[in-house]
Amino acid sequence: MKIKEEKKKRQSVRNSKSEEVEEEQHSITEQNKLKLKQKQKQLPSHSDSDSDPDYGSPYVSDSEDFSEDGDFGGSLSESEAGESGSSGDEGVVDSEVDDGLHNDQENQSNSSESHQGVEESDSSEDEVAPRNTVGDVPLVWYKDEEHIGYDLKGKKIKKRTRKDKVESFLESADDAKNWLKVYDEYNDEEVEVTKKELKLINRLLKGKAPHSDFDPYAPYVDWFKWDDAKHPLSNAPEPKRRFIPSKWESKKVVKLVRAIRMGLIKRDKPKEEQQFYHLWGDDSSSTEKANNLSFIPAPKSKLPGHEESYNPSLEYIPTQEEINSYQLMFEEDRPKFIPRRYTSLRSIPAYENAVKDVFERCLDLYLCPRVRKKRINIDPESLKPKLPSRRDLKPYPVTCYLEYKGHTDAVVSISIEASGQWLASGSLDGTVRIWEVETGRCLRVWEFEEAVKFVAWNPLREIPIVAVSVGQEVFILNTGLGDEEEQKKIKELLHFETPVAPDDSGDKVSIASWHQDDKHGGIRLRHFKTVSSVEWHRKGDYFSTVMPAGESRAVLIHQLSKKHTQRIPFKLRGLPVSSVFHPTKKIFFISTKKNVRAYDLQKQKLIKKLETGLREISSISVHPGGDNIIVGSREGKLCWFDMDLSSKPYRILKCHPKDITNVAFHRSYPLFASCSDDCTAYVFHGMVYSDLNQNPLIVPLEILRGHTSSNGRGVMDCKFHPRQPWLFTAGADSVIKLYCH
């Protein structure tokens, strides 16, 4: 609405201005008319003016038109006539003519000269403005001036009054030919493009010649006449250089040959065109991959197999029972195509689900998004850890060197003396035997009423005693080894007069009691429950016992010198399986069926809890350094824990198909082993570095076989020799084997 109101207002202003201009023009023409009449009276008459065609009738007709119509164009013609009449006698021109009239006459004369021979119209649009003659001078220099340049006679060309944007917009909306107008900034005017010029522009845009009469394919005209020519174009004799090989060309060739031989110039190898291509390959060609295009081809449909054959083999044709079973299946699991046999291709009927399958295929291509997955081509061998050669990790036990036979039932536990000269073994036949390692000779035998569960040799060489767990009792036996002074010291250690009760006398039932055992020559500790394992402290004065069964499950620590027994000052969580002392620190490890806990005996607090994630722990062993632990389980897994690294396993080794019965570290060599009910023992290389930034190195070395299974049990226990890289294994076949390097 605002634009329409503004448009009406502008139109009314325009009409009023046009009326004022017409009145002003009319008054000017009247004045010019009077001045011209006065001038004609003063000038003499010329008889030649009537006969001259250039000064005759055109001006008379124009004056007549002016007298009749009163148009401004008539005044221009009369002024031109007056000027032409005065041209015959230049000396009689009145010098007192007004300057405004003189300027009007000059402008009218210029316009008449430019449009000479063409019928003039009454419209002011046909007037040609004076041409600007400033040349290549930038129009910016006239930015602050009232004119834009000078015409041919040196007169200033004044600038037109600028229109505001609203007025120019309204004019462009009213003018239907506004799109043909171009503003000429050089002459400060609007130029309208004609139809002829439009045709030229269209031809140039189409790449054609601007004029239609131009023929770009005109026939060639040979301006030289070759026929019947007596003389050639040049009579000069042939030069000698045309018959002699060029010296400079030969030098250039030699230079190029040397450059090729030296490798400075490398010739491009011809591109080998691929003669074959993969018929069923991917749609994305190598050129698209080379150009880094983001084209993702549609997945290929499944290719037909033997089942889709018109005459498949009999094994592909389902029976009637199988076809009936298909009806009971879910539609998703039901096969979409049931193969049949036909005698020829002509007898094959039309596929009834052809349109449906094609439609579903189109839906899959249209609706299912496709994502480009980058496949990493990695050699599987490169993913394997680079382990050192087994030859570089020698020595380690490889072959069976000696067998110790004498037990009549399964040997469940073995222990080696600190010097490595003697071996103690306990069996389900109720006997404990002392063997000489190098010869296999049985030195001594103790017989008990019940099956032996565990044997443990004292870690001190000067105290050669053995702890044996039989049922609810633990026996400390004197082996009789050593010299007289050692035997005297051992007898004093294993002798006391009265039994000693435990310190926690407030309990209703005593946990363990000390007694003199005259039958076997040692000490007997009576426990309330069955003892499963016995472990010595490194100083040889303390040992621990584990009672896992019953509500009163407990782990006890005994002091041999004072004949003292006490409970551990920690609350047990779960059923205890085994216990181990730290080799150097005052730390005590207790393993339950699920976890392993480390306690500080001096501060009496929990230090760390190791989460194994195993179904049931069977055994535990501590590295001589004390910072690494291996745990065996009933499911055949072996876990290596680095206590400085994490409470989770550093490595989990799935090596045995059956239960692992025991694990063991070597005291001096970087070796550890595990034995299982599958009648095998695995030997590993386990190097622990002093650099905390370097992880332990675990390398499997050897699988030791030789034991036979008995009642579903295999190898019951394994221990390393304290000094040599030897491994002792005790089997359910009542045989003890020694494996050497």
Keywords:
741 residues, 26% strand
Report on this model:
- With 741 residues, the protein is of the alpha+beta class.
- It has 13 helices and 33 strands.
- A five-stranded antiparallel beta sheet has the order 10-11-12-14-13.
- The longest helix has 41 residues.
- It starts with a helix and ends with a strand.
- Pfam families: BOP1NT, WD40.
- One of its GO terms (biological process) is maturation of LSU-rRNA from tricistronic rRNA transcript (SSU-rRNA, 5.8S rRNA, LSU-rRNA).
- One of its GO terms (molecular function) is ribonucleoprotein complex binding.
- Required for maturation of ribosomal RNAs and formation of the large ribosomal subunit.
Question: What secondary-structure arrangement, pairings included, does this model have?
Answer:
Blueprint: H1 2-42, H2 48-51, H3 57-69, H4 72-86, H5 99-114, E1 147-150, E2 156-158, H6 165-174, E3 181-184, E4 189-192, H7 195-205, H8 247-262, H9 286-290, H10 320-328, H11 354-367, H12 380-383, E5 399-405, E6 411-416, E7 422-427, E8 431-436, E9 442-447, E10 452-457, E11 465-470, E12 473-478, H13 484-493, E13 512-517, E14 522-527, E15 533-536, E16 542-547, E17 554-559, E18 564-567, E19 576-581, E20 587-592, E21 595-600, E22 605-611, E23 617-622, E24 628-633, E25 637-642, E26 651-654, E27 660-665, E28 671-676, E29 680-687, E30 697-705, E31 715-720, E32 727-731, E33 735-740
Antiparallel strand pairs: 1-2, 3-4, 5-33, 6-7, 7-8, 8-9, 10-11, 11-12, 12-14, 13-14, 15-16, 16-17, 17-18, 19-20, 20-21, 21-22, 23-24, 24-25, 25-26, 27-28, 28-29, 29-30, 31-32, 32-33
